[in-house]
Amino acid sequence: MNWIEQALQRLNAEIAVVVTVMATQGSVPRGPGTRMVVFAQGEAGTIGGGHLEFQALAHARLWLSGQTTQARLRQVLGPSLGQCCGGALDLHFERVSASDAARLREQLNPVRIPLALFGGGHVGKALVNALAPLPFAVRWIDSRDEIFPTDVPDGVDCEHSNPVQAAVADLAPGSRVLIMSFSHAEDLDVVMACLKRLREQADLPFVGLIGSATKWATFRHRLEDRGFSAEEIAHITCPIGVAGITGKEPEVIAVAVAAQLLQTL
């Protein structure tokens, strides 16, 4: 269970105060719309940490105890807070209970970007876990129905597709695509399906293929033989992952690829 659901569950038994960053100026830890939920004991989420958050927590608990009803608080990140960011935040405080749970779930959950992950192997499994706390809605696709684990994180939909490339046709517009199936033949089929969709709709902003430079050279020649232009082929990113991370362990690759995906947002 993620922190949002844990906080909403606690609302069934106790009240809380939601602290929201309403506006910012200059350099600040988090942007407008960032929220945390404060209980008499404990809190969920963060608006940036440090003394800024310490002051916000103290003010929220004054609300909970009925010692204040001041709903707005401006915090300047200067020497008085021991944070030299130099910016300022306007914070809003709202007392909430179980009756507010549905609205809060919508407010607290981030907007998720569609992401199609082709391949349920070791790297695919590591990627699903790495992406779980990030703002992606993962559609996990494989031609082998039995490959998916029984416990997958929130925001992940498992899909059996045979042939696997058939799933490309109905991907959500704006989907990021990662290709790492169990065979190079399937990888090539998915790459070609993505290139055909890009040719017709141009709505897949990132298509990444796992593999070495040698694999990509072979794929590039095969794609050329199938009539794709150099400009079209250039839409495929291979190898994947941010530069400078050289480890080959699935978890290391997953972190490097997750960071690269965040750069596309």
List keywords for this structure.
single chain; 265 residues; alpha/beta; Rossmann fold; six-stranded parallel beta sheet; five-stranded antiparallel beta sheet; 8 helices; 11 strands
Would you mind describing this structure in some detail?
There is one protein chain. Helix 5 links the parallel strand 9 (176-179) and strand 10 (206-209). The strands form 2 sheets. The protein has a 6-stranded parallel β-sheet with strand order 8-7-6-9-10-11, with helices on both faces. The protein has a 5-stranded antiparallel β-sheet with strand order 3-2-1-5-4. The protein folds into 2 domains: 3-108, no CATH class; 113-263, NAD(P)-binding Rossmann-like Domain (Rossmann fold, 3-Layer(aba) Sandwich). It is built from 8 helices and 11 strands. The mean pLDDT is 93. The protein is 34% helix and 22% strand.
